[in-house]
Amino acid sequence: MILEALQVSVARGTARVVRDLSLKAQPGELLGLIGPNGAGKTSLLRALCGLEPLAAGRVTYGGRTLVEIGRRAGGRTLAYLAQGGRIHWPLRVDQVVALGRLPHGAAEVDAATMRAMEAADVMHLRERTAGSLSGGERARVLLARALAVEAPVLLADEPVAALDPYHQLQTMELVRTLARTGTTVVVVLHDLTLAARFCDRLALMKEGALLAAGPPAQVLTPELVARAYGVTVETGTRDGEPFVLPWRRCDAARSEPIVRP
Amino acid sequence: MMDRAGPGHALLVTALAFLVLALFAGSSAIGYATLDISAALADLIAGRPSLPALVLSELRLPRAILGAAVGFSLGITGAALQGLMRNPLADPGVVGVSGAAALGAVVAFYFGLSATFSLALPLGGLVGAGIATAFLLMLARQGVGTATLILAGVALNSLAGALTALALNLAPSPYAALEVVFWLMGSLSDRSLVHVALALPFMIIGWGLVLSTGRAMDALTLGEDTAASLGFSLSRTRLLVVGGAAAAVGASVAVAGAIGFVGLVVPHLMRPLAGNRPGRLLLLSGLAGAALTLGADIAVRLIPTRPELKLGVVTAIIGAPFFLAMLRRLKVEGE
Amino acid sequence: MKTMPRRRNPGREGGWVLRSRPALRLAVCGIAAFLGATASTAAPKPSRIASLNLCGDELVLRLADPGKVASVTYLARDPRSSNVADLARAVPVNRGLAEEIVPLAPDLVIVGAFTTRTTTAMLQHLGLPILELGVPDSLEEAYAEIRTVAARIGEPARGEAMIAAMQRDFADLPPVPAHPAASIVLRPNGFTAGRGSIVDEILGRAGYENLAARLSTDRLGQLNLEEIVEAQPDLLVINGGGDAPPSLADELLHHPALAPFTADGRTLSLPTRLWTCAGPELAQAAQRLAAKRVSAARIGMAK
């Protein structure tokens, strides 16, 4: 299902946190949403989920807005993984993941739940209580919950932020496979290497607007990175895959490193 | 692979229902007059207006019915408030909903409103409870920590209690000021079928509204945003809980006074049996609340004080230490 | 005995008077002492009588000259709870506070056994002459109380006249049957008349046996509705305010479980004020009860 944002603006008070932004995410490709803190990535993602009211523009799923799709069907259409999620009651892990089945009926631990737990590598945790999990384990359980919805669109806000390197790679491989097998996936990322290696397309935001959109090679140029993040990067390839390492802070306007004595 | 707790849940509900029925029968069998229950029941069914039938139908039955219904209302509302606010210390008494309901009922009763329009009494309780619940939900929207919630409850209880005492002072009847004990501690003694007819419809409506939020409660385990993304309307859920709690608690308090701690103790005890799932907890808490209240009311009649001990005294003696123990065990966190 | 409503902060008004008006105290003590001195030598009748108690109000308004009554309680004006409502209209009222009484410089203050302790203590402290009324438990005690009040206000003859009228009325009651009918008096909050109370005696004079005295274990005689229904008295005396404003206490008197009594004509409504205080109304209460008993017996014989 094609997810499209058409000239979307989101306001918070008098400030515009997302300004006139247009974006398209297609099934089969992993779209990465990157940009500095405060660029509006989370606000955009929430707006795409219908959690923020739009000051302007439209968001469509397969050509229809969420209002047209309806609340309940909307729950089956998209899966949202929030940033830093909490689990308020000490449920068993498999029950938490099973909550992802709610849009389809009851929150039962069924085959879809098991698949989701396998994919997120939390199967061995399924009898543990939510309160006893570490930060990384909880993050993966919540990812499994989002996977359990088996929705055509997955929107994940920094899904790898709390994870160790093993699980970061595992999760990125997972969402890429998911994208390849027909799900439309949008992830917000901070790690530029992960963004470069795993995403098929990137959208770079700064101050609420889209700075650039396209394949990673096109977006993660030193100039654009400097303008967006205010850092210089060291780039290269290894086994045919790129790495992008932020190296030094720089003066964004002139793309020159700030030299330290 | 079915959820293993599925058939277990149905079994638990049935077991609790039987417990409630047993206590209901016990409550009907215990009282101050010597009564041959089987004879009374036979007379009642045959329509013979004998003395035992009268005592059973006009004095014992209303008390037992109200005991179960009020207990159910308090239990289910406690579970619903806890699920909605994601806080295990929410209870209609603790957070001030019962106190506000008492204020509404007092105004309706003592100033003659319910004399002209009998439904004014439960409606008064409903309005009071509704205002308090809506206020709490406004607070809870951004996610309020335990400390803030309890403080809000203290504030609401203080205000409602003060205004209730004021209303009773200003009321024309000379007994009014002394009757504050009833409103603040609750009692089921000498309630009649008239009270049952007045309150039960509102309570049943409230139960229905609250029970319909079961799945939304489960979704709220993950927070408001995720619950919304799963297709649940937060505003609708809040409205159902506010409306349901107001109706159930408002009507309960209007006929039985404010009985505390049932909505706190019962969900806590039932939560492990519900697998910590807020949706399942609703019905279990209702039934367990009915059982607890019936049991307390039986105790009240067995303890030989004259006048009869107030029901709220028994529930407070059980519930307040419970509350303190819970406070100690929970981490009091600011969110 | 109808008493003043209890104050919520018992110590407060006392503290105010004690702390800030030594001059007033002196003045009042002075006046009282002067009056007391003159009273002890020539025993004149008190000319400024204040009452802080409803029963005191009734006796004072009936036995004293109108100009001599300085203040009665506000309850005296309420026709629902007072037998002297019309007499009380011409007299200033108080709410039972020492502050209201002291400025009147009364030479006699009548209080009840249940007047707030602090108020009574304050008045005594200020040296005002006080007469404390008890709760009469029998007709003899009621007559004694009337005599005491009449003597103290200097109208003993009027007191004797009132007593004589009451005694005549009691003597005129129909004779008490060998087997008195059973009755229970039901008061707001489920209270009844316990044994050894004046109501007990009046029921007896009217030809009834007070079942509550036999059934209940405590002196106050609180009975449960179930016990009342089970006892099936021949007469249920509903002792309420009639058109009283709503209260839970009053609601009890209209409980559906008591409906069979009303349907059978086995209820009699008596306003509480008839037998709250020592006075002519006690005889009225007995007369109504006796009349009910006689008519019920007639209906019973006709069946």
Describe the structure.
- The complex is a heterotrimer of chains A (261), B (335) and C (303).
- With 261 residues, chain A is an alpha/beta fold.
- Chain A contains ten helices and twelve strands.
- A six-stranded mixed sheet of chain A has the order 5-6-7-3-8-9, sandwiched between helices.
- In chain A, a hairpin with a 2-residue loop joins strand 8 and strand 9.
- In chain A, helix 5 packs across helix 6.
- The longest helix of chain A is centred in the middle third of the chain and has 16 residues.
- Chain A is globular, with a radius of gyration of 19 Å.
- The model of chain A has no long low-confidence stretch (mean pLDDT 91).
- With 335 residues, chain B is an all-alpha fold.
- Chain B is 74% helix and 0% strand.
- Chain B has 15 helices and no strands.
- In chain B, helix 3 packs antiparallel against helix 14, helix 4 packs parallel to helix 7 and helix 9 runs antiparallel to helix 12.
- Chain B is globular, with a radius of gyration of 20 Å.
- Chain C starts with 11 loop residues before the first helix and ends with a helix.
- Chain C is built from 14 helices and nine strands.
- Chain C has two domains: 106 residues, Rossmann fold (3-Layer(aba) Sandwich), CATH 3.40.50.1980; 126 residues, Nitrogenase molybdenum iron protein domain (Rossmann fold), CATH 3.40.50.
- In chain C, helix 7 packs antiparallel against helix 8 and helix 8 packs parallel to helix 14.
- The N terminus of chain C is likely disordered.
- In chain C, the strands form two sheets. In chain C, strands 3-2-1-4-5 form a five-stranded parallel sheet, sandwiched between helices. In chain C, strands 7-6-8-9 form a four-stranded parallel sheet.
- Chain C is an alpha/beta fold.
- Classes of the chains: A alpha/beta (261), B mainly alpha (335), C alpha/beta (303).
- Chains in contact: A-B, B-C.
- Chains A and B meet through helix 3, strand 5 and helix 4 of A and helix 10 and helix 11 of B.
